[in-house]
């Protein structure tokens, strides 16, 4: 009779870890780029967005890992 195990052992236990890190680093890069772009907005665009230069400065000064 064949021995059938209900436990599955993966040869790549960290496969999901790579994907998770890739997503995190991608998010950090996007935040960093977007915050740099905020600093390039002119006053007219800031007003059209319905915000203030102070709010833009606050957001742009956040570290990339903070949402």
Structural write-up:
- The protein is an all-alpha fold.
- The chain has a domain at 17-60.
- Helix content is 57%, strand content 0%.
- It is built from three helices and no strands.
- α1 packs antiparallel against α3.
- It is rod-shaped.
Give the key terms:
67 residues; mainly alpha
Structural class: mainly alpha
| Total helical elements | 3
Main β sheet profile: none
Number of strands: 0
How would you spell out the order of helices and strands?
HHH
Query: What's the gyration radius in Å?
Result: 22 Å
Q: Report the helical percentage.
A: 55-70%
Shape: rod-shaped
Low-confidence stretches: none
- β content, as a range? under 5%
- Mean pLDDT across all residues, rounded? 87
Cα(first) to Cα(last) distance is 57 Å
Brief synopsis:
The chain has 67 residues and is mostly helical. Helix content is 57%, strand content 0%. The protein is rod-shaped and about 70 Å long.
Give me the secondary-structure topology.
Layout: H1 15-38, H2 43-48, H3 53-60
Helix pairs in contact: 1-3
């Amino acid at each position: 009779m064949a021995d059938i195990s209900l436990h599955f052992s993966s040869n790549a236990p960290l496969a999901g870890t790579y994907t998770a890190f890739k997503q995190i680093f991608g998010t950090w890069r996007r935040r960093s780029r977007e915050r740099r772009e905020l600093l390039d907005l002119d006053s007219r665009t800031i007003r059209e967005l319905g915000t203030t230069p102070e709010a833009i400065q606050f957001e742009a000064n956040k570290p990339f890992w903070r949402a």
